[in-house]
UniProtKB/TrEMBL annotation:
EC category name: hydrolase
Superkingdom field: Eukaryota
SUPFAM superfamilies in alphabetical order: (Trans)glycosidases (SSF51445)
Name of the protein in its database record: beta-glucosidase
Function recorded in the entry: Plays an important role in cellulose degradation. Shows hydrolytic activity against several glycosidic compounds.
Gene Ontology MF terms in the entry: cellobiose glucosidase activity
Species assigned in the record: Aspergillus taichungensis
GO BP terms in the entry: cellulose catabolic process
Length: 481
């Protein structure tokens, strides 16, 4: 397997990051706070009491990051813009912060000068805190959509002539479910009163997901109406989702539950975009808690992807639940497990409790998405792994990250097979991540970088083995033009 597979000559590869995870400089040059600044201040929410106050200090080290990209041979860099750096209060009538905007314009110029293609994510979970306070952020669709559209237009105006690949939202599933049901991510709302005094996990995630979809569609319309003809770029959304295997392949209920799991995680967003409606499985389980589509809103959303942005890390075993679903269930009335009926693990353990690698699952999910959505152009916008205990290793061992290197070999193999053997139109791949960084609720204890960041010593960066190897892997696969 793998040996005869290839990737096309124009295949684009590089690395991804997100603003709050790497930038630091949270109070600098007029940036306003986002919901993550606020959430990190609540005791007990983040491992080790960590915050993104300094993170990798990338706001001050754009040149170091570009040098790293060049050392790895990366052709592309996916990063996100902090909305509250550009518009500190966030709203459509609030002032623009020229210094914040200029930071990103300059960064794009520097990337282009270094020969690196920028892919920009407009939103990677960091709602301006003022909008959360003003009207509840994406719980208020009308306000949120209007404010997001204005922010998107400001960014397109400033950088549209230079940036050809735009991602509206990163992983709306995470914002909706982890932010409004589990309460593990900002703004931390949940029905669980031991975790939060506010929130309704049975309703809010579905409302938030709907708002994010409409905001995506509205921003795409602005791009297509006002910029695309002049700038010739493309725009899409990035969705996360893992592959699903039945816990007991002999049990039809478990087999059926696998599709339902992917529908609740991915098709929740992808079906409206590609098919103009929510999946039947979700309508059936959620009833009137799932918002219905007005003709105006679905017209914005249906057909709104120029490419499908795919974040993918791992696979799960799925066991159907019997009986009525819990009101707070967001998964499709099933259990998500890491081992099957025979007691076999889906993959080796990592530092992230939810992540056990299974490269064959990547190939299968690529095919599943390709079939369900009419063979869209797919950009893999994140893929990568943490390592069990990496943070505790002596430096020489930490830098020799063979486990991560093998993960990339296996996953890129699987992707090349999907392209070559299964006819999947996958055209780009961004490894997660260029740098060890602020891993949300897990703080700095979990590392995902191909570059080690020494948080104790002036955020010094040292490339790991994986940083040096990934380019060789792509060189083998990408056909010479
Ligand atoms: C993605 N889960 O998030 C994000 O886009 C990145 O910002 C993040 O650093 C990366 O994956 C690694 O975690 C996820 O619990 C976070 O299933 C959590 C989950 C999935 C994706």
């Amino acid at each position: 397997m793998g040996s005869t597979s290839t990737l096309p000559p124009d295949f684009l590869w590089g690395f991804a990051t997100a603003s709050y995870q790497i930038e630091g400089a949270v109070n600098e040059d007029g940036r306003g706070p986002s919901i993550w600044d606020t959430f990190c201040k609540i005791p007990g929410k983040i491992a080790g009491g960590a915050t993104g106050d300094v993170a990798c200090d990338s706001y001050h080290r754009t040149h170091e990051d570009i040098a790293l990209l060049k050392t790895c041979g990366a052709q592309a860099y996916r990063f996100s813009i902090s909305w509250s750096r550009v518009i500190p209060l966030g709203g459509r009538n609030d002032p623009i912060n020229p210094k914040g905007l200029q930071h990103y314009v300059k960064f794009v110029d520097d990337l282009l000068e270094a020969g690196i293609t920028p892919l920009i994510t407009l939103f990677h979970w960091d709602v301006p805190d003022e909008l959360e306070k003003r009207y509840g952020g994406p719980l208020n669709k009308e306000e949120f959509v209007a404010d997001f559209v204005r922010y998107a237009r400001v960014v397109f105006e400033a950088m549209g002539s230079k940036v050809k690949h735009w991602i509206t939202f990163n992983e709306p599933w995470c914002s909706s479910v982890l932010g409004y049901n589990v309460g593990q991510f900002a703004p931390g709302r949940t029905s669980d009163r031991t975790k939060s005094p506010v929130g309704d996990g049975s309703r809010e995630p579905w409302i938030v997901g709907h708002s994010l979809l409409v905001a995506h569609g509205a921003a795409v319309k602005v791009y297509r109406d006002e910029f695309k003809a002049r700038d010739g770029g493309e725009i899409g959304i990035t969705l996360n989702g893992d592959w699903a295997e039945p816990w007991d392949p002999e049990n039809p209920a478990d087999v059926e539950a696998c599709d339902r799991k992917i529908e609740f995680a991915i098709s929740w967003f992808a079906d409206p975009i590609y098919h103009g409606k929510y999946p039947d499985s979700m309508v059936k389980q959620l009833g009137d808690r799932l918002p219905t589509w007005s003709p105006e809103d679905i017209a914005l959303v249906h057909g709104s992807n120029d490419f499908y942005g795919m974040n993918h890390y791992c696979a799960n075993y799925i066991k159907a639940r019997t009986g009525e679903p819990d009101l707070n269930d967001t998964a499709g009335n099933l259990e998500i497990l890491l081992s099957n009926k025979k007691g076999e693990w889906v993959g080796p353990e990592t530092q992230s409790p939810w992540l056990r690698p299974s490269a064959i699952g990547f190939r299968k999910l690529l095919k599943w998405l390709s079939d369900r959505y009419g063979r869209p152009k797919i950009y893999v916008t994140e893929n990568g792994t943490s390592l069990k205990g990496e943070n505790d290793l002596p430096l020489d061992q930490l830098l020799d990250d063979e486990f991560r290197t093998q993960y990339f070999r296996d996953y890129i193999d699987a992707m090349a097979d999907a392209y070559t053997l299964d006819g999947v139109n996958v055209r780009a791949y961004m490894g997660w991540s260029l740098l060890d960084n602020f891993e949300w609720a897990e703080g700095y204890e979990t590392r995902f970088g191909v570059t080690y960041v020494d948080y104790e010593n002036d955020q010094k960066r040292i490339p790991k083995k994986s940083a040096k190897t990934i380019g060789e892997i792509f060189n083998r696969y990408i056909q010479k033009a």
